[in-house]
Amino acid sequence: MALPFxxxxxxxxxxxxxxxxxxxxxxxxxxxxxxxxxRTWDSIPSDVLEGWRKERSEWxxxxxxxxxxxxxxxxxxxxxxxxxxxxxxLISERWENCLNEGRGACVLVRPECRRTVYESLxxxxxxxxxxxxxxxxxNHVHVLAAFPSAESMASQIRSWKRFTAxxxxxxxxxxxxxxxxxxxxxxxxxEYQFQHFRQYIAANPRKAGLAVQEHQHYxxxxxxxxxx
Length: 228
Fold this sequence. Notes:
Layout: E1 17-20, E2 25-28, E3 34-39, H1 46-62, H2 72-79, H3 81-100, H4 111-123, E4 130-136, E5 140-146, H5 150-171, E6 184-187, H6 191-207, E7 216-219
Antiparallel strand pairs: 1-2, 3-5, 3-6, 4-5, 4-7
Helix pairs in contact: 2-3, 4-5
């Protein structure tokens, strides 16, 4: 099936949008593939998160970078390409290891809850967005997708989280918060990085030691003229 619009990796020469979330900057660009993660609110303890943020702020300040700047990551990679990449990899690894420890209620290990997220992600694929890969873990979700605009990316993520939270709470006879308010997103910057994220998503359940019935993985076949 043809994609609804051409997808690409990030091109700094083309127009892009950066906006500030509650704690993280978010980047968007028309048609650019984005790696997105959102998690349940109880998956990482708040004191652990605050400790990481404090450590990151101190490290950036020591390297002459304002930790509150929206482009702190771009500055880091420009000024310290090797050391900066190593530090970002450390942050990512620590974050993922913590998620894979399976903290919190892990409601997505339940088949009916996982099915709700699965069907929600696929519902508007090839019409509102191009969904390429995703994995539904017990307490978090990783998605690779491209959107027709930065605004549609932000609104679609909110829609996914709002709908699935309502349905899952109904299924479990619960109410209140399910997802952490803010998601993590990263515009894919090269074909190599795109393939890396696809492999990362596919391997995530194995790294977390999950059985087949404890997760849901999806990967679109891009061999028929749909590659970047």
